[in-house]
């Protein structure tokens, strides 16, 4: 079994996966994967296209069943997928409120606006989602994460479509999340510049 361990042993695990196996379309993607995610940890999933990074994130989020093994979640988990889960027919404010409502209480408008300001969408509360660029959609989806209370963030290509300034802001937010006792697992085809980053190469556990 391949184990990824994070910080020192006195930190409680936020999430563990034991002897995890994944199958897609009748084919084994990976097997025997073990993972411990602890407060403050950031884990970068690496591996070739098709090695199972998105599949693993979805298993950890509980969005798909594992073919083998078990996952123990000891803290609330939030997942950000490729598609951002945004409804085109809503306004920016409505979409953000809707996303927040799926995971807990909806913050008041002052707080929503403050986070939207931070991602450069402060004047777009009433703007239709369908008119946002790809990068703006990504920022809106990310805004939901830092308004929520999940301690474990599972992020599929979070830097995708973001400009340099937004990438730097995302780094700041991820660091603040870790410092506050959160943890994250992410995929990224571009370099990740977070300090103390752990890596897991899924090519090493992928089925031949
Ligand atoms: N809907 C599906 N039905 C059947 N097989 C699928 C499906 N989606 C993905 N797969 C297969 O599952 C395997 C893992 O895919 P996954 O998307 O998890 O890989 P990945 O490492 O995230 O890839 P990438 O780097 O290209 O994003 C691949 O072999 C892929 O062909």
UniProtKB/TrEMBL annotation:
One Pfam family per UniProt: ABC_tran
SMART domains (alphabetical): AAA (SM00382)
GO terms of molecular function: ATP binding; ATP hydrolysis activity; transmembrane transporter activity
Annotated GO biological process: cytochrome complex assembly
Positions of the ABC transporter domain: 15-204
PROSITE patterns: ABC_TRANSPORTER_1, ABC_TRANSPORTER_2
Keywords assigned by UniProt, alphabetized: ATP-binding, Cell membrane, Cytochrome c-type biogenesis, Membrane, Nucleotide-binding, Translocase, Transport
InterPro entries registered for this protein in UniProt: AAA+_ATPase, ABC_transporter-like_ATP-bd, ABC_transporter-like_CS, ABC_transptr_haem_export_CcmA, P-loop_NTPase
Name of the protein in question: Heme ABC exporter ATP-binding protein CcmA
Protein source organism: Ideonella aquatica
């Amino acid at each position: 079994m391949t184990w990824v361990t994070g910080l020192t042993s006195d930190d409680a695990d936020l999430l563990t996966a034991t002897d995890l196996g994944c199958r897609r379309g009748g084919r084994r993607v990976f097997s025997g994967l073990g993972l411990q995610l602890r407060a403050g940890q950031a884990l970068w999933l690496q591996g070739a296209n098709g090695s199972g990074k998105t599949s693993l994130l979805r298993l950890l989020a509980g969005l798909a069943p594992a073919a083998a093994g078990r996952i123990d979640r000891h803290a609330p988990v939030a997942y950000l997928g490729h598609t951002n889960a945004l409804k085109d027919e809503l306004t920016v404010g409505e979409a953000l409120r809707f996303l927040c409502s799926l995971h807990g209480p909806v913050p008041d408008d002052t707080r929503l606006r403050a986070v939207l300001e931070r991602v450069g969408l402060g004047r777009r509360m009433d703007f239709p989602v369908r008119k946002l660029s790809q990068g703006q959609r990504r920022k809106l989806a990310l805004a939901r994460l830092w308004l929520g209370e999940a301690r474990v963030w599972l992020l599929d290509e979070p830097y995708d479509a973001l400009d340099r300034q937004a990438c730097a802001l995302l780094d700041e937010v991820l660091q603040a999340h870790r410092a506050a006792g959160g943890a994250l697992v992410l995929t990224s085809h571009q370099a990740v510049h977070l300090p103390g980053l752990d890596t897991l190469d899924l090519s090493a556990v992928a089925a031949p």
